[in-house]
Amino acid sequence: MGKTLAGKVALVTGGSRGIGAATARALAEAGADVAIGYAASADKAEAVVRELRESGARAGAYRADQGRPAEVAELVATVARDFGRLDILVNNAGVLAPGAVDDIGADLAALDRQLTVNLGGVTAGIRAAAPLLGEGGRIITIGSNLGVRVGRSGMADYAATKAALVAYSKGAAWDLAPRGITVNVVQPGSVDTDMNPADGPRADEQRAGNAMGRYGRPEEIAAAVAFLAGPDASFITGTTLDIDGGYLA
Asked: What is the pLDDT of residue 183?
C-alpha cells in the first residue's frame, strides 16, 4: 500500500482491539498518524500504540467513554490539539447487548447503554469533529449488516442502533459535502473479534448464513476503511459498504 494518507491524522474509536486495532494499523500503513480511543483496555490500547510507533507512525491512546457525549467531544478536541489537526474520524466503538423485546427479564440498563454508545457516541463524535475537518476530511462509521436484515432473535435493539447510523450518516453527508468532507458507513457481517468470536456459541449458524460460509477477518474490514479514508474515495459519500460474505446477497 502506498502512503496515500501521509500527513493525515486519524482518530479511531474503540481502537484497542478487533476491527478498531486493525483499522489503526491499516491507516498507519497508509501513512497516517493515528490516535485511538478506548474505554477500558488500557494495556491493549498501549500495545497497539507501541506497534504503530514501531512502524514509524506518530500514535497515541486516549481514554473516553463513548456513552458520555462530553467525553467524546473532549476526546476529539484533545486529539486535534495534540496532533495539530484532524482529518479522519473512524467511529468504531460499540457494544452488543442482546435481548428479546418480550423478555421481561432483559437488562434494560444494558440496552439503554447500547443505544447511548452505538448511536449517541457516534453522533457526538461527528458533531465534535465536523468543525475541525478540512477539505478532504473523512468520517467513516462501522455499522452492521444487521441494520439491514436482522435474521435472528434477540437483536432488535442492537439492529436499531446500527440502522440509525445509516440514516444519520446520510444526513451528515449532505451537511458536510459543500466542505469536501465525505461521510460513509461500513457494514460488516460476522467478523472474528472478541465481541463475536469465530468459535462462539452461534458461530456455525452465522457461517451458514452467508454465501462464503466463513467469518471475516478484521483486516478485511480495515482495508475498506482505509480505502474510504483515501483520496480515491473522494466522490463516495452518504453510502454504505457491505462486507459480510454475502449475507445480504
From this structure: 99
